[in-house]
Specification:
single chain; 172 residues; alpha+beta; Alpha-Beta Plaits; 2 domains
Length: 172
């Protein structure tokens, strides 16, 4: 296993696997000495569906109630529980999580989440968790009318704060 990790590191000379100790074992990074800074991350993903399913979701209905409202709440709640889901994530005090869900063409909804905190580590995982939980909730609430929905294109759009440079995806 360590040989595999060394190959990954060698592929990018500047890369360091911060969550792996010198023996190749998983570890939680010590962030205790890092300064508090304002952190922000934006992630997004798509839920594809039949056009009639999209119309139902956008109309506020569905077999289980107000689909988009419930999915937004699921995303916000999930972001607050990220450290419970991702083993090496630090629990952190989120200042804000916002989840927006909007039409993305005739057969998809885009889920976009913004997570913000003033803390010692980034909030990318919280933004990802919000997107995926909201997308899963959309599927759960609409599966009675469309079993072929998919979650696709989950990606980080931008991040800021901390020691590393601010970053933005070119296609966001």
């Amino acid at each position: 296993m360590l040989e595999d990790l060394e190959g990954i590191v060698m592929a990018n000379e500047n890369a360091e696997l911060s969550h792996v100790d010198p023996e190749g074992r998983p570890r939680m990074v010590n962030v205790g000495e890092k300064p508090l800074t304002r952190r922000r991350a934006v992630a997004a993903g798509l839920v594809t569906m039949r056009p009639e399913t999209l119309k139902l979701a956008l109309g506020g209905g569905g077999p289980k109630g107000p689909v988009i409202d419930v999915a937004r709440l699921a995303g916000i709640t999930a972001a607050k529980r990220t450290a419970d889901l991702v083993p090496l994530c630090h629990p952190l005090p989120l200042d804000q999580v916002d989840v927006e869900i909007a039409s993305a063409g005739e057969n998809a909804l885009e889920v976009r989440a913004v997570a913000e905190a003033t803390w010692r580590t980034g909030v990318e995982m919280e933004a990802f968790t919000a997107v995926v939980a909201a997308a899963m909730t959309l599927i759960d609430m609409l599966k009675a009318v469309d079993r072929e929905m998919t979650i696709t294109d989950v990606r980080l759009l931008e991040k800021s704060g901390g020691r590393s440079q601010d970053w933005s995806r070119g296609d966001s």
